[in-house]
Each structure stands twice: as structure tokens, then as C-alpha cells.
Amino acid sequence: MGSLKRLLALLALAGLVVAWFSAGESTRRYLKHLGRQVPYLPYRYFI
Amino acid sequence: MSDYDAVVIGAGMGGLSSAAILASKGMRVLVCENTGWVGGCCSSMDLGDYRFDIGASVVELAWIIDEFFTSTGRRTADYIDFIPVDPIYGFVTEDGTRFSYPVDPDATRAVLATFSEEDARAWDRFAAIGSEIITGAFGPIMTRPFMTFTDAMKLALANPKMAAYMCYMLMNFESTLCSFFSSDRVRASMSLQSYFVGLPPALCPGYIAFLAYSEHEGIFYPRGGMIEIPKAMAKVLEECGGEIRFDARVKRVLVEGGRAAGVELADGTVIRSDRVISNINAKTLYLEHIGPDYLPGWAVKAISSYEVSIPAPMIMLGLDSEPNLDAHHTFCHTTLEEMNAIWFEDYLAKRLPDRGFMLISWPTHADPSMAPEGHHCLNLVTFAPYELAQGDWDELKEWYLDSQLDLMEKKFGLDIRDHVTVAKVNTPSDFERMYLHPRGAVYALQNDITASAFFRPRLRSRAIKGLYLTGASTHFGGGVPPTIGSGIAASGLVLEDAGA
Fold this sequence. Notes:
heterodimer, A: mainly alpha, 3 helices, about 80% helix, B: alpha/beta, FAD/NAD(P)-binding domain, globular
């Protein structure tokens, strides 16, 4: 189970890296903007 | 002992709709309003013989307004005379080209075909998806709570087809439009609506592009000005026995044992109620009216993390002749790059933009009674920072008015300067003073996907029991029908919790 989780996390990370390098300037700006908000989402979900 | 069953902070659209519905169900309701009028940003003011709208300039998604009146056992037509507005937008460009997008999607297609046959064909796909998303995804949640992953799952199960459109949540507005349309002019003319949720095309979520399509289902202007909508809602409230107290600024929300217990006004009056409904900015509510001492740590962290939206300074002009325009709304057309530059190069650098991107609203086109015979009203709306590197907004008012009139004349050939009889500038500071919008944020909080749906402050607070939120800060976000929808949804939760 632990290895499966690690594999899934690795795949997700690889997907993000591919998405980042294949994205245009506009999409990168968007992803950067969203990325900065991500740490707050667990708190925002409950407020 | 409660003075009222529910006390509402603010007579904006969310506050009034929730108050009126609760009063219609027999609750004793009091609305405390800071100003001397109703409507918040959906209001109008008289200047001499002219009446100007001070924020919202038109309504779409009229079925939400109908749902409000139906919820109180009434009919919209008995209270508001809506004038259909067509075309939706006119555009003027720097090279003198003019075009407009009619309400009828087929007529808009014909306009697009003059730019690009390929884009006209893409419009058919875009319109079909827009219509499906509005009906299948937005429609079911705009007047209902949408607070948890479970709510999202229920929506997905009820409309499995919507899964195909999830990609537009991860794409931005700009990429979404570019995936359909190839002409620069078409892309730019459809991108402006991203600013209606307070974000540039590069940062606005892609699905908002389809929400904007709702304008093709009809847009309307209330005869007598935008204030006629909240006035009608206030009338319903009073008919149902509810009360509005004007010039009653709420200083704080009383919290006892983790529960809302009423409000204290600026003059010291205490009004006790087990239910408090807030129609003010959620950051102001939680951080100033309640205060971190009464909130759990996670709640302080959550509410502090939201960014408020970009301000939209407005110029109101009374004219002694008819302006050379073609529609209720005219956009001074600029490129997609310029629209993004307003944010990345001007807004973030605290510079006043001078790129000529401007919405001109012409209410007397729909309703001539807003001005003396032969005269007209115009509202010029731009997007600009709250803090300015050039100085203070109050000092720059005259300069700002002059510079915008210059831009209209020199870039777009719209010379109205000699016809101006009345002029007033409402700056972000004015919006802050009048409506308590922190930093002049007319759309409350930034509306990207990390601050939407179940990531936006909830209609029913989890931090304080008995506290409910309405308005642009909560689900569904800013705009006249969405904020009315928030009031309908919040009143449903209040009634559910009261066991009614």
C-alpha cells in the first residue's frame, strides 16, 4: 500500500512537471498563481 | 431574550433577499444598514436631474430574481419593470472599427463570421457548451448551498456530463478562449468579462468564460435605475413585517460561548438575536466585527489568506446630448496582452492604467427617464489599484477624470468633453468609505478556483454557530443575481437550522 501511494505521488509529480514544461506563458502564470494559494486550501475548506 | 429572530448586517442584495424570505416565513427580521439607502453596489444616486447607477449596470440570469420573488409568494413583474437590453456589448477600437454582440447567439455568430469563418464555427461549439454548463452546473448551485466535497459529488452524480468540462476549471480564461477562437479581435472582445470577477484573463478560471455566455440568454435593465431592484426587495421585506434600520453601522458581532448572540451598533445600541446574517465582506466580518480572539486559529488563518478583489473606480457623467455609441455597454477595445498588463504591470505596481481599457455604460439608452429630455448619463468603469504610486486617490480625482476623457477622445475618437454638464468620480477610497468594501474591493474576494465554491467562506459559518454569510464574499461570488442567490441559499439554511 505504501509503495502504491509513493508511486501515485511520483506519477502526479511527473504529470505536473510535464504540464509545466508543455504550458505556455499564460498557463504558467495561472498555475503559479494557484500554486501560491494551495497551502491555504485545507483552512479555506472549513471557513 | 432575543429582540429579533434574525439580524442582518447590510442591506445589499444578499442581505435583503435573505431577510425578505425569512420575514415571509414569519420570522422577526431586522436589517442594519450603514448608509441611508438599500442595494450596496446595486444602487443608484441622483446628481442634479440625472440618476446614476453606482455599481452594477445590468442583470443577466433573471431567473434568480424570479426565484426570490416566488420564494416570498410574489411575482417579479408586479415589482420591477425590466427592459430587455440588446445588443449586449458594443466595441470601439483604436482604428475606428465598431461592432457589437447581439443577445441572439445566431446574430453574434454572424458578427464573428465577419472576422473569421473558423471562429464563427467555433462559436457554435462554445455556445453549446456554455448553455450546457449554465444549465447543468451553475443553475443547480447558484441558489443552493455548495459548501462541501459531498455537495460537489452530488452535483457530479446528478450531471455526469459535466465531468467532461472539468478541464475548464484547471485552464485559465485566456487559454479557454484561445482553445476555441483564433482571431485576436474575437479573443480580446470575449476576454473582458474576466474582469467582471475582478481578475485578468490570465488568472481568471476558464469556466467563467461560459458563465459569461449567460448574457446570451437575455440581459435586462430595471426601469428607474438599478436601485429599483433592491427597492423592490425592501418593499417585499416590509410587506412581510421585516424592518430596515438606516444609518445603523454595526460595530461588532456579539459572540457568546461560540455562538452568535446579536450585534452592537456604532452608537452603542445592542440588538440581541440568535441568528446573525452578514452581508459585508467576510474578511471585515471575521477579523474586525468578530475578532481573532473569538475565532479558532484555523479560521483566522483561513480568512486572512484571502486576497480582496481589484477595485473598479467609476466616473459618472451627465451629458447635454446623445453620445456617439451603439449599445447600453460599450467596451473600448484593447488586446489580450494589454488586459493582462493592466494587472501584471499596472495593478501590481500600483500604477493607474492608461491603456484605454474601459467599460462605458449608457443607462439612458435603455431608460431615457434617467436624465432630463435630450440629456444622457454615462458611467465609465476601469480597473485600478487601491494604493497608488502616483499619490492619493482623493488628490488625483480631477486628474483621473481628465485623463480618462483624454483617452476616450484620443484613442477611440469619443469626444464628449464639451457636453459634460455633471461629473463625479467614485474612487476605491469612496467605495471603502460608503460601502465598507475593504480597499475598495467591489467583488469582495478574488474569485479564482482556490476561493470559489467550497473554498469560499461558507454560507453557514463553521467557526461561529448561528452566523450566516451572504453577498459577494460567499458562494457564488459577485454580481447582482449571484448575490441574490446567496441570500436565497442562506435563508434556506437558517430555516433548516430553525427546524422551520
